[in-house]
Amino acid sequence: MTRSITKLLVLGGTTEGYDLTEALYEAGGFRTITSLAGRTRRPRRPAGELRVGGFGGARGLAAFLDERRIAAVINATHPFAAAMGRNAAAACREVGVPLLRLERPAWRPGPGDRWLEFGEWAEAAQLIADGARRVLLAIGRQELDAFAALDHVWFLIRSVEAPDPMPPFRQAELLLARGPFDLAGERALLAERQIDTIVCRNSGGAATEAKLVAARELGLRVVMKRRPTGPQVPTVSSVPEALHWLSAL
Ligand code: NAP
User: Which distant-in-sequence residues (6+ apart) come within 8 Å of 88 by Cβ?
Assistant: First the structure.
C-alpha cells in the first residue's frame, strides 16, 4: 500500500522554518516547498523544495496555492513579518487551504528587568530623547531613521549588513555582526561602549537573548518594540506542536 503524500508550503526565513522542514522530512509523508522572501544573499538551503521571492500579494499567493495543489500552509516567518502573515491569511481563506502560524514565544520581562515597551518607532525615539546618552540600536536597517535626529545621543548600530544609505547620525559607530551572540560577548560589548539603553524588537528566541540578560545584570534600560498583532489563525510556538497539528489534517 502506498501512503499519500501531503504537499505543504512553509513560509520561512527563520530557524523554526528550517527546523520544521527537517522534522517533516524525517517524519515522512510530506513534501515541502519552503518560500523565502529573498532578503539574504546566500540563504541556507532547507530540506525539500525551495522557492525565493514574493508571490505578488495575497492574490499571487492564492494562485500559487491553487496551481501547486498545496494541502496546508505553515507561516513560520519572523514575528515582525506582518505583511506576509496578513497575505497568508487572506490567500488561504480565499482558496480554502488550512493555515497554521508557527511563531516562537515572545520574551517576557522578569525581576530586575527595566523594560519600556512601545508600539511605534516615534515613541521609542521619544523614550531615547528622555535621558539616554549611549544607546545600542539592535534593530533592522530600515528602522534607524527614527533615531537619526537625536544629535545629543551616541549610538552603537549593530546590523548584519551596512545600512545603505546610512541615515545622518551625528554620533554613531556601525558594528557589522550576525547572531547568535553569547552572554560574555554581550556583557563585554555593553560595558566597553558604556551603553545605558538598548533598543530592540521582541523577536524572542535564544540567538539574540543574551543582550537582555546582560542588560539585567548591568541595570540597563531596554526599549522594546511590541510584536505586531496578526490575523486570528491557529497558532503554535514549537515544531512538535506544528507536527501534531499537521497529523490531524
Ligand atoms: P513582511 O514585511 O511581512 O513581507 C513583505 C513582503 O515580502 C510580503 O508581502 C511578501 O511579498 C514578501 N515575503 C515575506 N516573507 C516571504 C516569504 N517567506 N516568502 C515569499 N515572500 C515573502 O516581511 P519582512 O519583515 O520584510 O521579512 C521578510 C522575510 O525575512 C520573512 O520571510 C521573514 O521570515 C524573514 N525575516 C524577517 C525578519 C524581520 O525582522 N522582519 C527577521 C528575520 C527574518 P509579496 O507580497 O510579493 O508576496
Answer: 11, 58, 61, 73, 75, 99, 233
Q: Residue 39's pLDDT is what?
A: 86
Is the CA virtual torsion 153, 156, 157, 162 positive or negative? positive
Q: What is the pTM of this model?
A: 0.92
Helix, strand, or coil (residue 77): coil
79 lines ligand 1 (CB under 6 A): no
Q: Which atom of ligand 1 is nearest to the CA of 55?
A: 48
Judge whether 91 and 65 are in contact, CB under 8 Å.
yes
Domains of the chain, earliest start first:
7-105+229-247 (3.40.50.720), 114-225 (3.40.50)
Give the Å distance between the CA of 216 and the centre of ligand 1.
Answer: 31
Residue with cell 512553509: 10
Residue 3: pLDDT band (50, 70, 90) is: low
Residue 68, pLDDT > 70, answer yes
Of all helices (H) and strands (E), which one includes residue 137?
Answer: strand 134-138
